[in-house]
Amino acid sequence: MEGTSKLEFPESFLSFLKANGLDPSIYAGGNSIPRYVRLKPGFENAVQQIESDINCKLDEVKWLPGFYSIPPHVHIARSKAYQQGMMYGIDAASGAAVSALGISPGDHVLDLCAAPGAKLCMMLDLLGDKGSATGVDVARHRLAACRTLLQKYGLGQRSRLFLADGTIFSVPPTTNLTYEPCLDCHEDTFKQWTSRRPYKERKQEAKARKNSVLPHNGQPEIIFYGQSSGVIGLKKKELYRPLDKNDYAFCGYDKVLVDAECTHDGSIKHIQKFEQWGWTTLERRVLDAERTDISLASLQLNLLRNGFRLLKEAGTLVYSTCSLTHAQNEDVVDQFLAENSSAELQEIETAKDWPCRSGRTPKTLRFDPATSATSGLFVAKIRKLPPNEAEKNVL
Length: 395
Ligand SMILES: C[S@@+](CC[C@H](N)C(=O)[O-])C[C@H]1O[C@@H](n2cnc3c(N)ncnc32)[C@H](O)[C@@H]1O
Hints:
By secondary structure, the chain is α/β, with parallel strands linked by helices. 34% of the residues lie in helices and 17% in strands. Helix 4 packs across helix 5 (118-127) and helix 10 (268-277) packs across helix 11 (279-285).
């Protein structure tokens, strides 16, 4: 196909793009988009060292602090800099979505579809040594990979990971983050996290895995928590304390990312994998009508609804997907805004210099390979209005 160099898309994918009003030229240059890395704070002065380690230049991404690009063929996995956790791979468009949240040290942030966790790493980097980050995902193996990532980069201290359905997840942030060793703790109290689970718990987990269901009857299962995450010393009923619907306005999260499950059609790297896996697999996994129409869009809307419910008043939510179809992006956001007078779509102020386009709904943004030299990503930023401002929205 013209413009996408060697990548030939099958007819079914081209029809999928056409049916969704997408011009295939947005993938132009997709084979040559760079890889992006983010340097961990504290390693800003190690650029030369990293360059000689990976044997190529790190090109600073001027519009996104802390990000560098390298040519697509350069592998970093075996480099010392990567193995020692000085940098991690994260696409610049993903970095932009996190940056749109405007995270400040001390915030309590929620990542409702967190695995495998590159965005969660960046959130924790931005928090520094204040606040907390809670990651939720419905896939156990992906969340386990996320835990490994946090541990590798030494970012676990202030984080909690829950295996849970993000459409109904309800655990509020824990605001008392002081680590108390809890010497005479009751049996039911969370102690320091260890990878060794008690026999009873392992048995229960194995059974749930076998039946492909979430354990504890769908209740969130905490699979990791750090020393300063506020979990140690809590009783189970305190961690899982039910809040009243309106309490989240005060006790909810300051920032929420809903990086929703999607068809991944904007991710050229994902689509390219199907060249080897076979285009029929792409048809089944990506283009399947039932998945792309109602069921996926309603999952996305429900994730967005729940993320917003858990948000504090005046807090910020970012909705993103790596699909570029309107059905999974603007349509979801428009429907959500129509049913929520307390939700206000916001201009992303930092985006003035970003190489992206506006979405169909004003103030939303779209990254694509041709415009941005990044993977495809849709981003919308939403603020939860206090009741007096929300009333004005209805009038
Ligand atoms: C686009 S990926 C998230 C990528 C991640 N934010 C990152 O930066 O690495 C979407 C994730 O949503 C998860 N997911 C799907 N349905 C979910 C649900 N109902 N609740 C929570 N997570 C869900 C998938 O398991 C998948 O890991």
